[in-house]
Amino acid sequence: MRSIYDLTYDEMTEMVLEHGWKKYRGDQIFRWLYRKKAESFEEMTDLKAEMIETLKSEFSIVLPKLVTRQVSRDGTRKYLFELEDGSLIESVMMVYEYGKSVCVTSQVGCNMGCSFCASGLLKKQRSLTSGEMTGQILAVQKDLDASGDRVSHIVVMGTGEPFDNYDAVMTFCRTVNHDVGLGIGARHITISTCGLVPGIRRFAEEHVQFNLAISLHAPNNELRSKLMPVNKAYPIEDLMDALHYYAKLNNRRLSFEYILLKGVNDSDACARQLAELTRGLDVYVNLIPYNEVDEHGFRTLDYKQAMVFYDKLKKLRVGCTLRQEHGADIDAACGQLRAKYEGRKSS
Predict the structure, then answer these.
(1) What's the whole-number mean pLDDT along residues 233-258?
(2) For residues 87-111, b (16+ Cβ closer than 10 Å) or e, as one string?
């Protein structure tokens, strides 16, 4: 049975019209779901009884089930959710000065195979529907309601490759952005890709206001191919061509995500190559402390070491930020909590 959360606002309107109901009923249902946070059709008290029965017979209205939650000293919350088919996924809520940001998973497992990432410890089983992504936000918001807080920012940067699930991800972004939906501003929503060039070009042609982030992590083909197998299919030259195409069509700032791996991608040569890549683009580099994953053996830089690399980039006139560390005392890396939980189940 299809989830009611899979329907966009326009699809909801089409659905009510197909049933011979007044057009405004679609708006009513959408508001019940996203403004009033109804978790059953019976809660939609201004709908007729026969409408409720029809909705119950055609749609499910189920949020992801919370399996466990970890809370860090810095306020980061890591959620392990179970979907209707029993699949396990993770979401992370991070606290910033500007608000509460939720990192959303787009696939069950990941096939991109990045050598430093916990997401790839469990291979892709399937892509999520837009409703399953929306459900993550609603479930986290339900947890935040107790303290009167709200989700203000979203990053599609959890387990999975968003552009390998392009249509569902874009539908999700439009739903949470809709002013009758959760009303999260388009410029507060970021989609991160490891570099699927066809997806970047398609995204460029949509002319949307959602932010685009590139998981770069290495500034040359030799190193990036070792860290990220996707680079063998779409090397840096092809990736940069696609990004210049995006910039030409949209005139929007890009961001490069760059996880700091000790002794791997923090050399003077890497800094110079990164500066060369960014030349001519409106881009900033988001330097990210690495959440260490025992299975991979990479180590992170401490704050002083990270600042050395940051200073190198600044001297080379690269716009960059050093992201504050989140959830170092919990299983904060993408896929880490799920992999640990699955390991316990099978042992």
Answers:
(1) 97
(2) bbbbbbbbbeeeebbbbbbbbbbbe
